[in-house]
Amino acid sequence: MKTAAEILANKQKRLVTVPANATIYEALEKMTSAKIGAILVTGVGKEDQIVGIWTERDLMRNSLLEGFNPRTARIEDYMTTNLHTAQDTATVFELKDMLLGLFIRHMIIKKGEEFVGILSVGDLVRASLHMQDQHIRDLKAQTSWHYYENWRWDRQ
Prior knowledge:
Elements: H1 4-11, E1 17-19, H2 24-34, E2 38-43, E3 46-55, H3 56-62, E4 85-87, H4 92-102, E5 106-111, E6 114-120, H5 121-143, H6 145-149
Parallel strand pairs: 1-2, 4-5
Antiparallel strand pairs: 2-3, 5-6
Helix pairs in contact: 4-5
C-alpha cells in the first residue's frame, strides 16, 4: 500500500508557505500561482516554524463576516492553529481514515519533526484509484488464458 512519502514524491510540489502577518490577498496570490487549496502559515521572521494552515474553506467561511477585506485582513486572524499531522510512513488507508474522522480536507505530512508536504482528499482519492487500477490489472493478468497456457508442473 502506498505511503504519504510515495504520494508526495509523485506530486512533486514544493511546500508553499506564507508568513502569519501576510494579508489574505497575498496568500490567495501564492495559492493561485501554485494551484493549491491550502497554504501553511509560518511564524513572522521564523520561516522554519509552522504555526497554522489556511485553506479555501477558511476564505469561504470568513468572507461573509462584517468588515472582512482580503486586502487588509491578516492570515494570522483567520488561520487554523490546531494542526493535524501524519508521518510520511502513514498509508493511504490510514490517511483517508484520519481525514474522514477529523472532517478535514488537508493533512500536513511530517518526516520526523520536519514538515514535508500537504496531502489533500483529492491526492488520496487519486492514489487509491491508481492502486485499485493496478490491482485489477494484476488480477486480469492472473486470470488470462496466457497465464494458464504457460503454467505447467515441473515434474521430477
